[in-house]
Design goal:
heterodimer; A: about 775 residues; alpha+beta; 4 domains; eleven-stranded mixed sheet; seven-stranded mixed sheet; 22 strands; B: about 230 residues; alpha/beta; Rossmann fold; six-stranded mixed sheet; four-stranded antiparallel sheet; 8 helices; 10 strands; globular
């Protein structure tokens, strides 16, 4: 055991004893391992983060969960739900009116704000203090007296506020204003992560982790030839074969352990950065991202162990003898069948989830990560075979080409290994870009259908005078046109009706907004024969039959009103807008409405906006809040989220480019190492007159051929994976050629940069000094 | 000193230092067409540096080198490279064959560098391999042949362009005596048959015995043994 420790320690000393080159090697290995460790830790922290998020959401639940209304007591609190939307982001809002000294405080709030005051989340405070939040400030004019603590929020970017209120008791309706005696719920309803978002997270990590793993595998093999010679020297002075392998293990472990330390550092930095990132309205506090101690321990043990295993694996074809290193006989021709098993296995793991979409629950995490990783790792298995198969068929051309091709034919494995990382990173990034583009375009398409009519609907309740509300909305900046429609239902019996017909009431002008009317006078009734009319309305609406206005959702004190179906109901066809939202049923002018029925209808003001006014929606929301803070205007059409996608796509490109740069750095180190090994040969070639340009070009070909093949394979695997992922999310398949070109271009640029950067040392190595032996 | 009459390649008062190490300190040299001159001396005496300077691989700090009546200092790097490609041939101690090329491709390489087509170059290469009795190795890679065979392939590569001067730096240094003798026999025979001058750097007297004349280099200074006699 002592001997083992001594051998490992000697290996660690060797790792750092190689001068500047040795340090660079250790540092590159450590950075690669560090990135991998940080990503692994982040991945292991996500389940915990989701669970903390759910717990905090449950802890601040403010529903009474009671069939009977609570009575006012010393420990009750009245809560008004005043959530609003600002620039497409939800702003969670509550009005609080404590009814006694024991009224429960919401989590994260230390004292109730008085009327005219509010406590806000840090993100909302920042927004309100900024120029961007000016319009929201008009809607939330209360004085900010404090901030909501982390325990009361579900994300660092969440916009939320609690404001003081009075006189809420009269507004309690079991809906938007309620009385509660505690926050939180004993049986929290789970708010599962959107399956597609979960899939995106899983794929992002698999796509980022795989190239890093490939990079680590390549990095621990840096300086292999020198290490072998060092080990041979050790054999000469008496080390046996096992001891030399332990020394090699020690060397590999040194880089991995430094990598672990760096990884912990990267993770801490990443954790802080994660706190400022918001993706599809999800954000986290850094404190949420705590990996489970067991998983963290597993990472700490598994990473150095993996590094040692890779080193031992690389040494399997090498016999280190006291007088040098003997490589075992030329390896047999590479076989294709088992290499195909990996990507095929990956596809087989993903196949059962094809067509699942977001409606059928979460994607199986293990199958998803396993499938994606197998497909990507399949690149590393296929590439050596492809490079070997292609270069063995390449003929001899000019000298530079011949030198490169012959070198590749002799050692295509090394060349493929150097390119593997880049190919995997590019394949993963292409697939991910496709998935993002597909999911986002689907979302954008759904939300941004061209609409000729109204874009928002403001509900008028609480018996507010409709005309006055309409006037205020019409006077709002950015509003082009307003009309009102009141909606309700007519049931087929006075009590417990079984069938209903929707009814919409408005002036002839208002009704013309929703239907094509042949003629219209006050007192007319129409049958709007949109989609769905035939299913229910036609059965209920029979001439001479008495129908009853539905009162089930309203105040229990109100009484239903009957209405007899007249003989002369004129048919009407829906307008384009009405057809889009599926409006159908009866249309009534005000004079046709029986007395007292207006109380059983809900009125909405339909608003058409002036597109020239940038923040028209926000002005309307502010007016609506002033009319009734407990009702949010409905968005009939939302703005697209292209900006969001562009940011994600940009971020992904930056991330993938960073991985590519890291791999590029390792490629450069590896390239220089190979050139140094051939210093004497290069000098002798120069001695008998070989042009430097010929040798430089040969180095370029030597890199460009495997990289070209690698990028073709990467694009193929990336597109395949992208198609499979899109089919899994039930999204129409479309290829994002821009990102394919962008990523393959980035891969090619890395190779070009590596070649250019290796030229100055190459020219130095080609100096005749290389022939000196003394 | 002017170049000796009839000499193909000559050097006068060559000085070369590598940092604090003086490699050449006023060395002189001359060789005639078809002549074999051995440059002898102990390790570190400057004999390889003299060879590199004569071949235009290394530029001396001072002194002059004349090849075929032309001062080498007046040539730029490209011209010196062309000279090495077309007029000179080289044999090094360890052959320095390109490991990934086959033996025939290695021998053909200097011709291909001068623009000869692959077919033509390999045809000529094979002729030289036959003369050096290694034609059976044409499809093998350097890693698959013995040291002596590899060195004969290297000699064939050096002679394939029919150079006027062949520079051989310890050509038998890595071979046993039997193989060394055979390589020297083939090298000198082939060079004489083409009237090529041979600059033979060695520290072994039995290798130097294949030469017409010996020059001894010690502490960067040269001494022509024939003239000394």
């Amino acid at each position: 055991m002592r001997q083992w420790v001594r051998d490992l320690a000697m290996g660690v000393r060797f790792a750092f004893a190689g001068g500047r080159e040795g340090w660079v090697r250790v540092l590159l290995t450590a950075v690669g391992v560090g990135l991998g460790v940080a990503l692994l830790l982040l991945t292991t922290a996500i389940p915990n983060a989701m669970s903390v998020r759910d717990q905090r959401e449950a802890a601040r639940q403010d529903m009474s969960y009671s069939a009977t209304r609570l009575k006012k007591a010393d420990d009750t609190l009245i809560v008004g739900y005043v959530t609003t939307t600002y620039h497409d982001k939800s702003v969670r809002g509550r009005e609080l009116e404590p009814e006694g000294s024991k009224s429960p405080l919401p989590p994260g709030v230390s004292a109730f704000p008085a009327p005219g005051e509010m406590v806000v989340s840090p993100a909302l405070k920042k927004l309100l203090d900024s120029a961007d939040g000016k319009l929201l400030r008009e809607r939330l004019p209360e004085r900010v007296v404090g901030t909501i603590g982390e325990s009361g929020l579900i994300g660092s970017a969440e916009l939320a506020f609690y404001r003081g209120a009075e006189g809420l008791e009269s507004k309690i309706n079991g809906g938007n204003v309620d009385r509660i005696e505690r926050f939180g719920t004993p049986s929290p309803p789970s708010d599962p992560l959107d399956p597609v978002l979960l899939l995106l997270i899983l794929v992002v990590f698999a796509v980022l982790l795989t190239p890093v793993a490939v990079f680590i595998a390549a990095a621990v093999r840096f300086g292999g030839e020198r290490r072998d010679r060092r080990l041979a020297a050790l054999r000469l002075v008496g080390s046996d074969a096992r001891m030399t392998r332990r020394v090699a293990a020690g060397e590999a472990m040194a880089g991995a352990v430094v990598g672990l330390v760096l990884g912990a550092g990267f993770f801490m930095i990443g954790r802080q950065i994660a706190g400022s990132v918001e993706l599809f309205d999800y954000s986290f506090f850094p404190s949420y991202l705590n990996p489970s101690p067991l998983l963290a321990l597993l990472v700490a043990v598994a990473v150095p162990a993996a590094a040692v295993l890779v080193t031992q694996f690389a040494l399997r074809g090498v016999v280190i003898e006291p007088l040098g290193v003997v490589r075992t006989a030329k390896p047999s021709r590479r076989r294709l069948w088992w290499r195909l098993l990996l990507p095929v296995g990956g596809l087989a793991m993903l196949y059962p989830m094809i067509g699942q979409g977001r409606e059928r629950g979460n994607f199986n995490q293990y199958l998803t990560v396993g499938g994606v990783m197998l497909l990507l790792v399949g690149v590393t298995a296929l590439l050596p075979w492809i490079v070997e198969a292609v270069v063995s068929r390449l003929g001899a051309g000019p000298v530079a080409w011949q030198l490169a091709v012959r070198r590749l034919q002799l050692s295509s494995g090394t060349a493929a290994r150097m390119v593997n990382g880049i190919a995997v990173a590019v394949a993963g990034a292409i697939a991910l870009q496709m998935l993002f583009a597909g999911v986002d375009s689907q979302y954008t398409q759904r939300k941004s259908e061209p609409v000729s009519g109204s874009e928002m609907a403001v509900r008028v309740t609480d018996g507010s005078p409709i005309a006055a509300a309409e006037k205020k909305v019409a006077a709002t900046r950015g509003v082009k046109h307003v009309y009102d429609i009141s909606d309700g239902y007519l049931g087929d019996s006075r009590t417990d009706p079984q069938h209903f017909a929707p009814v919409s009431v408005g002036t002839c002008a208002s009704l013309r907004e929703v239907a094509k009317l042949p003629s219209c006078r006050d007192g007319d009734v129409f049958a709007l024969k949109g989609d769905g009319y035939a299913y229910e309305t036609a059965d209920v609406v029979k001439s001479g039959k008495t129908l009853w206005f539905d009162d089930s959702d309203d105040d229990p004190t109100t009484k239903t009103v009957g209405w007899t179906v007249p003989k002369d109901i004129t048919d009407a066809q829906p307008t384009e807008d009405s057809a889009r939202i599926g409006r159908a049923g009866l249309l009534m002018t005000p004079a046709a409405l029986p007395a007292g029925a207006d109380r059983l209808l809900t009125t909405e003001l339909y608003v058409r906006l002036d597109k020239a006014v940038a923040d028209a929606r926000e002005y309307v929301r502010t007016t609506a809040t002033r009319l009734n803070p407990y009702e949010e205007p409905n968005e009939l059409v939302s703005v697209s989220r292209n900006e969001n996608y562009a940011a994600i796509r940009g971020g992904l490109f930056v991330g993938a480019s960073c991985v590519l740069m890291l791999i590029g750095a390792s490629l450069l180190v590896s390239q220089l190492e190979q050139l140094r090994e051939r210093k004497k040969l290069l000098s002798s070639l120069i001695a008998f007159g070989t042009r430097r340009s010929t040798l430089s070009l040969s180095v370029l070909w030597q890199t460009a051929i495997p990289v070209g093949l690698g990028l073709v394979l990467a694009a193929t695997v990336g597109l395949t994976l992208g198609v499979v992922l899109l089919k899994m999310t039930d999204t129409p398949v479309s290829v994002d050629w821009a990102s394919v070109l962008q990523m393959t271009g980035a891969g090619a640029a890395v190779v070009l940069a590596v070649t250019l950067l290796s030229l100055p040392p190459l020219l130095r190595l080609m100096r005749p000094d290389g022939l000196r032996t003394e | 000193m002017n170049a000796p009459a009839g000499s193909l390649l000559s050097a006068d008062k060559l000085c070369k230092t590598y940092g604090p190490t003086v490699a050449l300190d006023g060395a002189e040299f001359s060789i005639h067409p078809g002549e074999v001159v051995a440059v002898m001396g102990p390790s570190g005496s400057g004999k390889s540096t003299l060879l590199h300077c004569l071949a235009g691989i290394v530029t001396p700090d001072s002194g002059s080198i004349t090849y075929n009546g032309r001062e080498m200092a007046t040539m730029n790097d490209a011209q010196r490279s062309e000279l090495r490609r077309t007029e000179f041939g080289f044999v090094f101690q360890f052959g320095q064959l390109v490991p990934e090329l086959t033996c025939v491709e290695n021998v053909a390489l200097p011709l291909r560098l001068t623009g000869t087509s692959r077919k033509e170059a390999e045809k000529t290469a094979l002729t030289w391999m036959e003369r050096l009795e290694v034609d059976d190795l044409r499809k093998k890679r350097p890693g698959e042949v013995s040291g002596g065979q590899g060195q004969r392939v290297a000699v064939a590569r050096a002679l394939v362009t029919s150079p006027r001067v062949l520079f051989a730096d310890e050509p038998t240094g890595a071979l046993d005596s039997l193989n060394g003798e055979r390589v020297m026999e083939l090298l000198t025979d082939a060079a004489r048959s083409t009237n090529a001058a041979v600059v033979l750097v060695t520290h072994e007297a039995r290798v130097a015995a294949w030469s017409d004349r010996e020059i001894v280099v010690r502490d960067g200074k040269s001494r022509d043994m024939e003239r000394a006699v």
